# Entry
Amino acid sequence: MSIGIIVQQIFVLLVLALVGVIATRRRIIHGEIKTGLSKIVFNVTLPFLIITRISSLEIDQTDFLDWGIVIILVFASILFFMLIGIITARILKLHPDKSIIHVMHTAFTNAVFLGFPILDALFPNGEGILYGIIYFLTQNTTMWTLGIYMFTREEKRKKIDNLKNLINPNTIAFFIGIMMLLLNIHIPDFLFGPLEGLGKTTIYLAMLYTGAILAYINIKEIVRDVTSFLLSFNKLLLAPVLLIFLMKAIFLILPIDLNATAKTVIVLEAAMPCQTLMIILARQFDKDDFYATQNFSVSTLLSIITLPIIYYLTQLMF
# Structure
């Protein structure tokens, strides 16, 4: 695989996001349409992308062990990134409403809206998407349990409300795809074509949505607050590089191994920019949602530079 693939893919995503920015500035994409784009991607196109990609894979028994190792590594990497966020938030002496956003944005990534399109381009055989989905599910589980707990430590909320969020069209699509894969069930050709085509629209709709959010960037406000740039440095460069070396050391010490694709996916997903959903959660839990939007904007723009660097390092190390 060439480093040019990820550079080209990020350029494609940048162009698509720019279209979203222009359409939003010209009020073609407004509040309701932006919300609709998010819902269409999350509830329609992405589930079909997941099902068509997973059900068309071929696996053997060793893959199950790999999946288990990936889950453990993803959970460990989230905790590692979270620790870095806690340390830097204390060093920066952030206000509590900013501090929790800083920690959550350091730990949780834009695994779907930016991560999946890049993985689909880098690994067109579907293997990258499979490991990306495992990353997403592990992150989702951690976010709606430990993450929400950290958001609501001072509030009394029913745990069942958080667990309900784990059941969504994407998790359902994942388990349907896995069952089809295990039982060797294939979608008939006359259905697979249109469903796969629908799934592939995820990249276009997701980046239009991303552009719609980026359209509200206030450059002057961002420049005045360097904390978003420090967060982006930690999240996009420092922590992923440390993660690469930690994973390299783990597999040298322990009598286990993992294929290069899985290792690369874990690092790339961890190195993705800040999660979009955190903006919504910040509003819901009365935290600093402006800071959340600022983090998302800065990290998304800087990831254009950092993701090729991280991908190049994974190719050298793995």
